[in-house]
UniProtKB/TrEMBL annotation:
Residues 247-385 form the AAA+ ATPase domain. GO terms for molecular function: ATP binding; ATP hydrolysis activity. Belongs to the CbxX/CfxQ family. The keyword Cell inner membrane does not apply. This is Putative sporulation protein K. It comes from Euzebya pacifica. Residues 173-183 have a biased composition (Low complexity). Residues 156-183 are annotated as: Disordered.
Length: 472
């Protein structure tokens, strides 16, 4: 019998029982124990393989809590009776208990559903941590469960957890991911390290909520959450003294410009800090110009300096494929060799993300035997749809106290539909460019008005949009 789940199960029971007591449940603790049993059973069943480790943990957690014969059972007994077969369906929808807490929170202004959510997700991660190798199906199940519960909370108009003021801007457009700060290429000129006070570590749920709030990128969000779930499970295993696989945290981002790669990288840096993968959680951006020098020997020195600036956080190398585009004698290949060595030497405190066009990044990964093994995972950033680009333009305009009227939004969509979605399509940057051009046209129109109102000064109409969008 194993005690691996005893603490998280009791935490769930102790955390949720007061809510049911407050709502007048006849047997609140027994009801919550039964709910915890359903959650644990669902995640044991998530990958269809009921291991001895999982079943002994189930028996150990509930043998003293439920009035059943489970404390006399063995894993073989549970498998033979099919006791938890099919239990994974529990996480396909919100339970009656969770729905009841949602209704109560909405009526009373309480926060019981969030308490349930926090303890239930923790319980799910603990179950996934029981296996020596966490299966993809288990990580998918955790994310599906998370999405289901948060969907119910959002649909009811309830807040997520305890609110706090957002952190100071880190220098990027939250809608488009366009970097606003200086790149590491400029920092390389500085040999003196300046210690900057780190902001407080942000709660994981707050970071995931910010990720969810980004326009579009559904597939990207799903991949980031799977990475996050795996890191949480590995952290729990390490805390219990269990073996943790040697997992590379380095990533490849592919896709056109303006698809949010920088914004997601910045959030991922903070997620990695929260989960103790890196100590600082800052993002440093660079490209070929920041890494490659014009004479022998200096390129490797440049690479080391850039890695030094990123130590404790994430280094994002944009257009990384350009490092191998100059032929055999190009110094970019020296940079690649240095990167391969440094990602291995500093894997405990620095994460590297290499970004660029899809086909070109595949060529880069094939150019050096050490790259593919060190960058095993690729996340693709698709082009935004027209509807998403219109939404991004709205967010950008709102941030500058402008707004598109309804007719202008329709016309903007038509203009965006006419732009070919080919290599180099600008995505979020294109939306920003259209907004900025519209502001100029709007100024020309409004300046001719005798006494423009505040609404005149803030509203963009179809007349303010360009006749067509020029992309080159």
């Amino acid at each position: 019998m194993s005690d691996s789940l005893r603490v998280p199960v009791r935490d769930f029971v102790d955390g949720v029982t007061p809510a049911l007591t407050e709502l007048g449940s006849a047997e609140p603790r027994a009801d919550v124990v039964a709910e915890a049993y359903e959650i644990v059973s669902a995640f044991v069943d998530a990958d269809g393989t009921h291991t001895d480790e999982e079943l002994w943990a189930l028996i150990g957690a509930f043998s003293g809590l439920m009035d059943t014969h489970i404390h006399h059972a063995t894993p073989a007994d549970i498998r033979a009776t099919g006791l938890i077969a099919g239990k994974r369906s529990f996480i396909d929808g919100a339970s009656l208990m969770f729905d009841t807490l949602i209704v109560a929170d909405k009526a009373r202004g309480t926060n019981h559903a969030w308490t349930y959510y926090v303890h239930a997700l923790r319980l799910a991660h603990h179950v996934a941590a029981l296996d020596s190798v966490t299966q993809h199906a288990e990580l998918e199940a955790i994310e599906r469960f998370r999405r289901t519960l948060l969907g119910s909370i959002s649909a009811a108009g309830l807040p997520r957890g305890t609110r706090r003021p957002p952190p100071a801007s880190t220098g990027s457009d939250p809608a488009t991911g366009t970097p606003a700060g200086a790149k590491a290429a400029e920092a390389v000129e500085e040999d003196v390290a300046v210690e900057v006070e780190l902001p407080p570590i942000r709660p994981l749920e707050e970071l995931l909520e910010e990720l969810d709030g980004l326009v579009g990128l559904d597939a990207v969000k799903r991949e980031v959450k799977l990475v996050t779930n795996l890191l949480q499970v590995q952290k729990l295993r390490a805390e219990k003294g269990l073996k943790v696989g040697d997992q590379s945290h380095h990533l490849v981002f592919t896709g056109n410009p303006g698809t949010g790669k920088t914004t997601v990288a910045r959030l991922l840096a903070q997620i990695y800090r929260t989960l103790e993968v890196v100590p600082k959680g800052h993002l440093v951006e660079t490209d070929r110009s920041g890494l490659v020098a014009g004479f022998v020997g200096q390129t490797a020195t440049n690479v080391v300096k850039v890695f030094d600036s990123a130590r404790g956080g994430i280094l994002l190398i944009d257009e990384a494929y350009s490092l191998v585009r100059g032929g055999e004698k190009d110094f970019g290949r020296e940079a690649v060799d240095a990167i391969v060595k440094l990602v291995e030497d500093r894997r405990d405190d620095t994460v590297v993300i290499m970004a660029g066009y899809t086909d070109e990044m595949a060529e880069l990964m094939s150019s050096n035997p050490g790259l593919r093994s060190r960058f095993p995972q690729t996340i693709h950033f698709p082009d935004y749809t027209t509807e998403e680009l219109v939404r991004i333009a709205e967010l950008i305009s709102g941030g500058s106290d402008y707004r598109f009227d309804d007719e202008a939004k329709v016309r903007l969509g038509e203009l965006l539909d006419d732009v070919p979605r080919d290599r180099g399509f600008g995505n979020g940057r294109l939306a920003r460019n259209v907004f900025e051009e519209s502001v100029q046209l709007h100024a020309t129109r409004v300046v001719a008005l005798e006494d423009p109102s505040a609404d005149d000064l803030a509203t963009l109409t179809p007349e303010d949009l360009p006749e067509r969008i020029v992309t080159s």
